[in-house]
Design goal:
Order of helices and strands: HHHH
Radius of gyration: 11 Å
Largest sheet: none
Structural class: mainly alpha
CATH architecture: Orthogonal Bundle
CATH class: Mainly Alpha
Distance between the termini: 26 Å
Oligomer: single chain
CATH topology: DNAb Helicase, Chain A
Number of strands: 0
Strand content: under 5%
Length: 80
């Protein structure tokens, strides 16, 4: 894919993955497909957790992103 080019689409994907981690098996994106730096960072952590077989939620993502959010901003999905 050559990027989503839609913040709404990015947030919908990330929000869906936050609600149901098992949807990751159906998503064929890379972090670079996300236009927002915060969205890329969140998706990257989700991919890492998926690869390790670990579940994620706002708390685990926030802990994993500790320090990164200062440079990329707060993810919109935190507002969900």
């Amino acid at each position: 894919m050559n990027g989503l080019h839609s913040p709404d689409a990015e947030h919908a994907i990330l929000g869906s993955l936050l609600l149901d981690n098992n949807l990751m098996h159906a998503v064929e994106l890379t972090p670079e497909d996300f236009s927002g730096a915060a969205d890329r960072a969140v998706y990257r952590v989700m991919l890492e957790k998926w690869g390790e077989g670990e579940p994620w939620d706002v708390g685990t993502l926030s802990s994993s992103l500790n320090g990164q959010l200062d440079s990329v901003g707060e993810p919109v999905i935190w507002d969900c």
